[in-house]
Automatic annotation (TrEMBL):
Pfam families: RadC. It comes from viral metagenome. The lineage of its organism: unclassified sequences, metagenomes, organismal metagenomes. GO terms for biological process: proteolysis. Keywords: Hydrolase, Metal-binding, Metalloprotease, Protease, Zinc. This is Putative DNA repair protein.
Length: 153
């Protein structure tokens, strides 16, 4: 039998959590329009140029604890990796999350991949006890809310 050396050191993850004043003072999210108004500023002048995927983390009182750009892509798409999304949600103790991305085309209609991704993330969140409250598609002039349209159950 061959003698195999097993490494004694592996990659290490350290978690540090520090609450900020922003979390304590942040506004409670009551409607999809609250998120749209917040994100219009976040996307600013690039909203019509290329796609971004954003994660908004909320505590149990639905106050914002996290706004994180998950990915930045091209004109017709960006990658929203569920592992990365839930890594941030877990490490920042989110109870609920809202997903958002822009459509540079100006269309607010969800694509089949938008619908599929939303369903996949909703199911994953259910396993982790992190509720996906909404997924918004943002343009400079309008937005589409999966929750408002009954597409998140």
């Amino acid at each position: 039998m061959k003698n195999i050396e097993i490494p004694t050191q592996f990659n290490e993850v350290r978690v540090s959590y520090k609450s900020s004043n922003y979390t304590k003072e942040s506004k409670k999210i009551n409607a999809s329009s609250d998120i749209y108004n917040l994100l219009k500023e976040f996307f600013s002048e690039d909203i019509d140029h290329h796609e971004f995927f954003i994660l908004i983390g909320l505590n149990r009182a639905n106050k914002i604890t996290l706004v994180k750009k998950i990915s930045e892509g091209g004109i017709s798409g960006t990658v929203a990796d569920p592992k990365i999304i839930f890594q941030y949600a877990l490490l920042t103790n989110c109870s609920n999350i809202i997903l958002a991305h822009n459509h540079p085309s100006g269309s607010i209609q969800p694509s089949n991949s938008d619908i599929s991704l939303t369903k996949k993330l909703k199911e994953a969140g259910g396993l982790l006890d992190i509720q996906v409250l909404d997924h918004l598609i943002i343009t400079a002039d309008n937005y589409f809310s999966f929750a408002d349209e009954g597409l998140i159950n």
